[in-house]
Amino acid sequence: MSSNRRSSSPRDDQWDDGHDDRWDDQHDDHPDEVTTVARDPHRTGRLLRVLPLVLAALASAPLLWLAIAFSLEMSQVAVYIMQLGAGGWTQFGVILMSVGGFICLVAALVCLFIGWRRDTWRWRWSWAGATVLAAGFMPLMGIVTGVFWG
């Protein structure tokens, strides 16, 4: 009973004639077989679903810059209000306005993240709107209080 395989070879893929089976498995050259790569049919839909969040991020970037600028101006005013001995509620309001820009930044990032995790079109537009509102809250406060008027 003779076997076609060598018993002393550490590789079991080699025949006695030196033929290596692994090469045939990796290089199947059959001209009658055609391979087509399947494209993702939902690719454009996925790119379109990200559009509201991208628009919200672009619209909220200058608003966030204004919010942080307003917070930095309020933190400079807060020193004088503390030195004048203002009441507790006034100090609390000034402290909130001085950290409000950074709170708006975190809120806008959270809204973008939540909107990115949602699948439906309506929720993405809702979270995109919430992003712009969160970014625009402190600049609106700066316009109302007159800080940006110079």
Can you give the helix content as a percent range?
Answer: 55-70%
In terms of DSSP E residues, the strand content is under 5%
Number of strands: 0
The backbone outline, from C-alpha atoms, is: rod-shaped
Structural class: mainly alpha
Radius of gyration: 32 Å
Mean pLDDT: 79
Low-confidence stretches: none
Q: What is the H/E string?
A: HHHHH
Kindly describe this structure.
The protein has 150 residues and is mostly helical. Helices cover 68% and strands 0% of the residues. It has five helices and no strands. The chain has helices at residues 21-26, 43-49, 51-84, 88-117, 121-145. The mean pLDDT is 79.
What's this model, at a glance?
With about 150 residues, the chain is mainly alpha-helical.
Q: How would you summarize the topology of this molecule?
A:
Blueprint: H1 21-26, H2 43-49, H3 51-84, H4 88-117, H5 121-145
Helix pairs in contact: 3-4, 3-5, 4-5
Which labels suit this protein?
68% helix; rod-shaped; mainly alpha; 150 residues
